Amino acid sequence: MAQKKATTLNILFTPFKPLTNSRQLDFLRSARLYIKQQKYDEAITVCRTLIDLALEGLSYYHTYDRFFLGVSVVLGFVGWTSYIIVMIIKNHTSFCKPASQIDKLSKDPFRGTFIVAGVLITCFLLIQASPWTYYIYCLLPVPVWYAVMRECRRTQGIVSLVTANPFCQSFGLLLLFALGIEIMVLSFFYRSVLTLGLIAFAGWPLFTKLWTQTRVMTVCWIVLCLLLAVFPLMPVVGRKQNISLVLSSGLVTFLIASLCLRLLSKSKDKSTDKKYFVAFTYQMLCVALSTYILNSTHSSLELKQGLPLANQLISWGILASSFVVPLLSETLLFQRLLSIFLSLMSTYLLVSTGYEAFFPLVLSCLMFVWIVVEQETLSHHGSSPVQKLVTFDFSCALDITQLRHLQLDDIRRSFFFIFFIVTAFFGTGNIASINSFDPASVYCFLTVFNPFVMGALMMWKILIPFVLVSCAFEAIQLSSLLSSKSLFLIVLVISDIMALHFFFLVKDYGSWLDIGTSISHYVIVMSMTIFLMLLSVFVQVLTTKRVHLWGKPKHHWL
To answer: Has residue 442 got a pLDDT over 80?
Structure first.
């Protein structure tokens, strides 16, 4: 108490009332009196009460500044999120009024106020001899909120738009958005909650014009959402192996690839060069080889014959080629996505031991349908005429005059992306299953314990579903005529709201497991933005770059 009182202003200091100095003396007198009277049970009771109150007092003074720092952190979070929203409205919508010459010349009325606020906060922290970290927590919201207030004058058009809509409609959309955020937060604790979200996704087209516009794709969307909703209900990937499911997944993947290759070969679009079908054929061969090698390796290990050298070399060759072969295919939207899917799927089969082998297959099919469905939503909302999906080219940058402003549906697209990212993470496991993975998953590559190589292989297995979802989102950005920055800013807002939610769920009491889990959830969501930025860079390279091995390249323009 003395230490905390020395670093706190007297008018602001509040002592621990259940154990003041006078009460401490009373407890000590009572204990000594009972001891003199040989009433040892009563003395023990008084000492235990004193110990409990002392522990509560230690916790009280240890967390004395928690509310103050918590308010500062929340103000920083809310300010940063508000600034991103203001930037979205300013740069990517039509609601921001341009700055007039008078506004440019007029004096900023907020500058002096925030400078004074910063000086007062600094003086307050200096008087209290606060640690240097307190300055970061308390001063960071000042420039952030100054930036928000400086720009909010030019975004007043959004207020009139919100007030123009019926209250019930605005409240309903806000409620749906909040409910979606809560489902994603709960999914960190209960994987089965993702099933409810996917079932809701399955019913989404029924409340739009998609049902009358494209019934085939709507039915595919509903079926695939329901299939994907099954995975969070299944046990996490553990030590129980079922190689027959992995082999079935490889067979289904090979059949789907054969069908797609046949459709491409019969396509009237001659822009697809025939010689690039060699790359697709090689990838189909890799899928077949992965299925065979997995079965062969499993049989060999059961017979105690070890890992065959040929199987090991082919497995590493398939893994290495999965990063290069997609760059040999054309950058047309469907051709490149098909190539990426086949390369990633051949690797995923090699590190699968059970039902999880079907997860990227179902997820990829759903992503393909999502791309088509989003294109249909653009056409029925009366946007500018869009080209057919088959003509979109990842390598052709959109002209700035072709880019459109954000619409309300773009918030839904960004929310879908975040939800699918969370589903990709918790679809077949959780944090505990990732920390204690089955070594049998990497037996096609090595059987000698090597934690770094095994960890790298399992990390790539975890990342493959993320890459599939990010590739689909990249395709939607291209086909929707949106800049990647605009949708990413919406994604950033959603992830910041989730991070703020997990900030309130961080625990410093209970078991070490509870404390560690709460901190892990907060760190995961906080690092989601950086992770998605790095993933976006990787996906852009994977979708836009192309290696030419056969003569001069051919260019396909939008």
So the answer is: yes
